[in-house]
Specification:
about 475 residues, mainly beta, four-stranded antiparallel beta sheet, 5 helices, about 10% helix
């Protein structure tokens, strides 16, 4: 499976796009690979523009670059619909507003008809193509670019949303401006970051900073340590940058001891943190609410020391600050024929992954503050390798389970400056904004000589310039790639 290439800067070559069907509408040059089990394929954007009924219409062309017939009928459905007839449509295509933290899914009529392509009975011969569409609820008018997500493709980053008319495809018979539509499906997109001293959970609108009680306090004490001040100054800066007026501070312990000790200790610790944040925050009109919960609501298992350490925490919750402007450097990932551009390459170290090589194609932060990581997995060995579940979150290795198994949600990125690990974004539908391999059409096995391109979308801090990438392999370390640049 080929990935990005073209010019030295990753842009498309100036010549006519290979495989462009004669007599069909021209594409935009924005293309991404598709990890379909039938063989190499890619998807090109034809149009993305605001249309009737406060909607946005996207049109795409799926190319079969392989030697066998490609059947796309169960490739693009939304994950929650595995057991329904809607698995035969393109309901899984999404429009991601990174700055707003929202994922817009295709509209449906009140009768359940998707305003998207039906893929039932559609097959693409070798060298052929298929035009498809999806109509989304429109993001706010000030959103001028978006990321297009599909279940088996790399995201299309920084796609302009035009105001030009989008000519409907022949099968586009439902007018979003005049039809009775069901409530729009707009999911909140959440990020998760894990560090030894602090961890962060973002849900698009709110932020919860989990501070290690082992750093904030001495054992069984509620007096802040000298090390705590540096952490709390960083949290106070985030509170000053947010727009909300309420801050919640919640204290927690692990399950050691008993409630008679844990409950008052958690309350005192929450109050100590809130009192110091009141002194450090400079924005007026902010109120603080404190509560202690003892050993309730653990975020990890109390059966291990590492889990108990995560559960001993003080969580500070507030409105998520707007993402800072991304540095104006680098270009988004684009597919082109031929060997993909490689930023860094390394073989897997896990014995069970012998013969596999990871090739980083792009780590690009866009203007909305999201970073898309694109990489190619190559099988240079002599045996077929099953990869469907190899890269998912694992409780033993990552410390928590994947709510949607068989994806690449276990691949984490370390900001080497702060020593915080970042995981792929996840929608409130529980779907990971990363490569999904739960569909039967996903590339779940890799034969000798084959390759496949995967991806994930992360919310890295704007300051992150160099990162380490951790590739798990079935519950153990598969490869730790260090010193990867973010562009």
């Amino acid at each position: 499976m080929s990935a990005c290439g073209g010019g030295d800067d990753g842009s498309d070559p100036p010549s006519k796009k290979p495989g462009r069907p004669e007599g069909k509408a021209p594409g935009t040059g924005i293309a991404v690979p598709m990890a379909h089990r039938a063989g190499p394929a890619h998807v090109e954007l034809l149009a993305l523009g605001r249309t009737a009924g406060n909607s946005v219409t996207g049109q795409f062309r799926v190319f079969n670059d392989g030697q066998t017939v490609l059947d796309p009928r169960i490739s693009l459905f939304e994950g929650e619909n595995k057991a329904s007839d809607t698995s035969l449509d393109a309901s899984g295509i999404g429009l991601l507003d990174g700055a707003g933290g929202k994922l817009y899914m295709p509209l449906r009529t009140t009768g359940g008809t998707c305003l998207c392509s039906s893929l039932n009975g559609k097959k693409i011969p070798p060298g052929g193509s298929l035009d498809i569409y999806a109509v989304f609820p429109a993001p706010p008018a000030n959103v001028r670019t978006a990321t297009v997500t599909m279940p088996l493709t790399v995201p299309m980053q920084e796609v302009p949303i035009s105001g030009d008319a989008v000519q409907p495809l022949p099968e586009q018979t439902v007018d979003p401006g005049s039809s009775k539509l069901a409530a729009p499906r707009i999911y909140t997109v959440a990020g998760r970051a894990e560090g030894d001293e602090q961890s962060v959970d973002d849900d698009g609108g709110n932020r919860a900073v989990r501070l290690s009680a082992d750093v904030l306090f001495a054992l069984n004490k509620a007096d802040l340590t000298p090390r705590a001040d540096n952490l709390l100054r960083g949290v106070a800066e985030q509170i000053d940058g947010s727009r909300g007026s309420a801050v919640k501070v919640d204290g927690y312990t692990d399950s050691s001891g008993n409630d008679a000790i844990n409950q008052p200790l958690s309350e005192r610790r929450a109050k100590a943190v809130a009192d110091r944040l009141k002194q450090l925050a400079t924005r007026t009109g902010v109120t603080f609410q404190t509560a202690g919960h003892g050993s309730a609501d653990p975020v990890a298992s109390n059966s291990s020391e590492s889990g108990r350490r995560k559960n001993r925490r003080v969580t500070v919750s507030f409105t998520m600050p707007p993402p800072p402007a991304a540095p104006a450097s680098g270009k988004p990932y684009r597919w082109a024929p031929g060997k993909p551009t490689s930023v860094k390459t390394a073989p897997f170290t896990a014995a069970e992954a012998k013969g596999l090589t990871a090739e980083v194609n792009s780590v690009h932060r866009d203007a909305a503050g999201l970073t898309t990581f694109v990489w190619t997995l190559r099988n240079d060995g002599q045996s077929k390798v099953a990869v469907r579940s190899a890269f998912e979150l694992d409780a033993q290795y990552n410390g928590f389970f994947s709510p949607r198994p068989q994806s690449t949600d276990g691949i984490s990125i370390l900001d080497t400056a702060t020593r915080v690990w970042y995981y792929p974004l996840r929608a409130s539908s529980k779907e990971c904004v990363c490569m999904s391999m739960s569909r039967p059409d996903a590339k779940g096995d890799l034969n000798p000589g084959e390759s496949v391109t995967y991806s994930g979308v992360y919310r890295l801090p704007a300051e992150a310039q160099t990162v380490d990438i951790d590739f798990p392999w079935s519950g153990q370390e598969g490869l730790r790639m260090k010193g990867v640049p973010v562009n």
